[in-house]
Write a structure and sequence with these properties.
Helix content: 10-25%
Distance between the termini: 29 Å
Radius of gyration: 25 Å
């Protein structure tokens, strides 16, 4: 897509494919509903699939035999609420449950995740690791499996060990018997600052990753016989090398980090023998390597590259061609690789874009591709509002890539439309072509939805990310404002009918828009947004400790290291309530641990004291992602109603 150099004369490739709606639009509630079908995974042989099927109060895990074309199992998981799942083999399915609850001996509520093993043949369900049973009582994350034994009987899981009185418990690697999970064996001891372990295909521990926050020291130790040897050591206040996989020969770990000859994340090999780091041909000068595709032992098969739509490269030529053919079938869409058989002959994909609201397909290397299910049952193909890309220049000349979600009736003439500006969260994240339920809900009601990838966004290279350091409320914000001005100058949007809506950091950006450019927007919606940066930093220090690299990251991101209460107040919307002119809607999850609800409560209090128009909705017993279906529907309906009321 070329830049908008010719006003509104934009040609979207999607128009040739797009079918205009011939039936009534879905209700706003349909956009807010959680997916009816999700978490679709395929077994090692490719003969079975499992998925979550939810409707109303009913919520089931379904296991289906592709070979026999019949359902094998259906269990009620409404009370368990798994967040993701995967097959270890054809018999054992792992799903990870996460819930906020109290832990005996610890203050407050905690997001506690645990892994369960479900035998799809017998129906047996067992928790793999249980806090208090050789596992640290205060453990909150127990869902990771880093390897499986050659005979498939055992899995390897990192976990903190000790009782509730243990100070700084160490992170060990546990060998867990799938058939009898309470039979545990500690196979690596680790320290309290151990991050990860790596296991080879023989079930042998080959490496341990550590990060010492006090010393700012990132290390990898390799096991050589009975001894451990440090093979990688780097002093850094922020972990910037992701060690995420193992080569097929078991001789190297795979590192993702910024290349020395460009600012893109590249693919490197770390020798377990001598610690040497070798570049590979899999890095690109125009895209970041942002994910590895591996088996359960984290043996790497290929990579995914950044972009508005994902692209892939696999090491096996036949597999690479298979994936290329798949993505080509859905041009101008995002094709996500969800799950795969052990030999990659069958792949579950999810397709999102201008004709797909999140549809699952199973494809095989023989060329067959079969539709399995729509994730959103109430949204049909011709309900999806088309998505386009363009770019504009910020005031200082930086190019800002942008997504547009366009009301289908206005695609032929994008002129003088009411608009909603929707900055993403993160902020080190970025938007992709897909089914964004907020953007789709708004576009379905006639609003042009604009998603600018302001400086500081991920996916466009390291220099683009670093350009955002210290620019919260400043150039990161003016990048968004410049997008509004650009579209107004092109005649695409009506300057008297513009709102700004955001979630998390996007909520901060929405509030900053009201505080620092009060004449630009007619309404503001912040969902789980930050308003008070000094308070945010204080909370982060309480949760992670002052020595944590997390604090170094936030101080660099928000203020480029020049941190003081005064400097953070200067970019905090909560301290500029008097400047607001537009009405504000605040929505916040009661149990949000990422951005505590206090951030919205402070903003509401300040706006009310200043005599400003503000509404507040508390999503009861919900989290940062608004994962409760009723809360999400309520939030989307309130957001659309609020925007419609004011523009």
């Amino acid at each position: 897509m070329s830049y908008l150099k010719f006003g509104v004369a934009i040609v979207f490739a999607f128009l040739l494919l797009y079918v205009f709606p011939s039936h009534a639009l879905p209700t706003i509630a349909e956009y807010g509903k959680l997916p009816a079908v999700s978490m679709m995974v395929i077994s090692a042989s490719g003969e079975r699939v499992a998925f979550r099927r939810a409707e109303g109060e009913k919520d089931f895990l379904i296991v289906y035999s592709l070979k026999d074309k019949k359902m094998l199992r259906a269990i009620d998981i409404a009370s368990i609420d798994p967040h993701y799942m995967y097959f270890v083999d054809d018999t054992n399915l792992i799903f990870v449950v996460s819930k906020y609850r109290r832990i005996d001996g610890f203050r407050g509520t905690h997001n506690v995740s645990t892994a369960y093993r479900f035998n799809v043949i017998t129906g047996d369900l067992d928790q793999l690791l249980t806090p208090g049973l050789n596992i640290y009582t205060g453990q909150t994350g127990l869902g990771d499996i880093v390897g499986v034994s050659p005979d498939g009987k055992y899995v390897y899981m990192p976990a903190f060990v000790g009782d509730k009185y243990t100070q700084n418990p160490r992170k060990a690697l546990m060998k867990v018997n799938l058939a009898k999970p309470r039979k545990l064996k500690e196979v690596a001891k680790g320290r309290n600052y151990t991050i990860d372990y790596f296991v080879n295909t023989h079930g042998e521990v080959i490496a341990e990753e550590r990060y010492d926050n006090r010393k700012n020291l990132h290390q990898v130790r390799a096991k050589k016989g009975k001894k451990w040897e440090v093979i990688f050591e780097r002093e850094t206040d922020i972990v910037n090398a992701s060690i995420a996989g193992v080569t097929a020969d078991g001789h190297h770990l795979v590192i993702l980090e910024e290349a020395s000859n460009n600012d893109r994340t590249g693919y490197y090999l770390l020798s377990l023998e001598d610690g040497s780091i070798t570049p590979t041909k899999f890095g690109r000068s125009d895209k970041d390597v942002e994910r590895l595709y591996t088996d359960i032992n984290r043996i790497v098969y290929g990579v995914r590259y950044s972009g508005f739509s994902p692209s892939y490269h696999f090491f096996d030529e036949g597999l690479n061609q298979f994936i290329e053919d798949l993505t080509r079938r859905f041009s101008d869409h995002s094709v996500w690789l969800y799950s795969w058989s052990s030999n990659w002959d069958k792949v579950v994909i999810k397709v999102e874009g201008s004709q797909h609201a999140g549809d699952f397909f199973i494809a095989d290397r023989k060329g067959g591709i079969n539709f399995v299910a729509a994730s959103l049952q109430g949204i049909k193909a011709d309900d999806v509002q088309p998505i386009g890309t363009f770019a504009y220049k910020a005031e200082d000349g930086l190019t800002i890539p942008t997504l547009l979600t366009i009301p289908s009736a206005k695609v032929a003439e994008i002129k003088n439309l009411p608009a909603v500006i929707m900055p993403h969260g993160g902020p080190e994240s970025y938007d992709r072509i897909g089914f964004d339920f907020l953007a789709q809900a708004l576009a379905s009601r006639g609003y042009l939805v604009v998603q600018p990838q302001f400086r500081g966004s991920d996916g466009f290279g390291g220099e683009f990310v670093r350009a955002g350091y210290g620019e919260w409320g400043r150039k990161m914000q003016s990048d968004i404002s410049d997008g509004v001005k650009h579209l107004v100058e092109r005649g695409m949007i009506d300057p008297e009918r513009v709102c700004i809506v955001g979630w998390s950091y996007g909520g901060y950006a929405a509030l900053a828009g009201g505080a620092f450019t009060p004449d630009l927007y007619q309404c503001i919606v912040s969902i789980n947004g930050v308003s008070d940066l000094p308070r945010m930093l204080k909370t982060e220090k309480r949760d992670h400790g002052s020595d944590s690299w997390v604090i170094s990251y936030w101080e660099r991101a928000m203020a480029n290291g020049e941190v003081s209460k005064e400097s953070l107040r200067e970019i905090s919307p909560a301290y500029y309530a008097e400047a607001f002119k537009a009405p504000v809607l605040l929505i916040h999850g009661e149990r949000d641990k990422v951005v505590p609800i206090k951030q919205s409560k402070v903003m509401r209090s300040r706006l009310e004291s200043a005599g400003k128009a503000v509404e507040f909705i508390k999503a009861e017993d919900d989290t940062h992602g608004l994962i409760d279906g009723a809360n999400r529907v309520k939030a989307v309906e309130a957001m659309v109603e609020f925007v419609q009321k004011h523009i």
